[in-house]
């Protein structure tokens, strides 16, 4: 019984931490900020490459 209670507490703690982290991402719109930063970085990489377009 003691082991089962310990497992339940661990699961509840993990769910609480996960919910808190996802709430922070949602409230501060962090996913869009990271994607915006990545978009700028990728464009910078590809803008430096020479274009070899043949039709």
Which helices and strands, and how do they pair?
Blueprint (H helix, E strand, L loop, with lengths): L1 H26 L2 H19 L7
Can you walk me through this structure?
It is elongated and about 70 Å long. With 55 residues, it is an all-alpha fold. 82% of the residues lie in helices and 0% in strands. The model has no long low-confidence stretch (mean pLDDT 93).
Largest sheet, if any?
A: none
Multimerization status: single chain
Approximate shape: elongated
Give the low-confidence spans: none
Output the structural class.
Answer: mainly alpha
CA distance, first residue to last residue? 73 Å
- What is the number of strand segments? 0
* Rg over C-alpha atoms, rounded to the nearest angstrom: 22 Å
Please provide the ordered H/E string of secondary-structure elements. HH
Roughly what fraction of the amino acids lie in strands? under 5%
Average pLDDT, all residues: 93
How many H/I helical runs? 2
Short description:
This protein has 55 residues and is an all-alpha fold.
Which tags fit this structure?
82% helix, single chain, mainly alpha, 0% strand, 55 residues
